[in-house]
Amino acid sequence: QVQLVESGGGLVQAGGSLRLSCAASGRIFSSYAMGWFRQAPGKEREFITSITWTGGSTYYADSVKGRFTISRDNAKNTVYLQMNGLKPEDTAVYYCAANQAGSWQTWGQGTQVTVSS
Question: What is the phi-psi region of residue 28: left when phi exceeds 0, alpha when psi lies from -120 to 50, beta otherwise?
Fold first, then answer.
């Protein structure tokens, strides 16, 4: 079982940047695909990006493509989300998740990102 803890959220002005981290503990982190999701107030949780266990392939939602970058360091059991060009509509709680057997089964507690206009 993998446990996930996000960090790096905060308040930033529109156009600014933040880097989120997701530290994993437990076994076999490097074998899991990892992803980031977000949930804005009054909205459903949405997928924004994922990365394969090797880091060789990444996927992005259209809403963040070209602005956000996912990466991972398996030696540090950590996955990152670099967010540039932030917009007020990016305001949400951001969650990292681990994909096991084709489903997002393990979630972190979330970190708040607030973008002011």
Answer: left
pLDDT tens column, 90-109: 999 999 999 988 899 899 99
Between CA 57 and CA 37 the distance in angstroms is 17
Give tens-digit pLDDT for 17-66: 999 999 998 767 777 899 999 999 999 999 999 999 888 899 999 999 99
Contact 21, 44 (CB under 8 A): no
21 SS3 class: strand
- The CA distance from 33 to 47, in Å, is 14
Q: b vs e for 78-112, b when ≥16 Cβ sit within 10 Å of the residue's Cβ?
A: bbbbebeebeeebbbbbbbbbbeeeebebebebbe
**Which structure tokens are listed for 14?**
């529109």
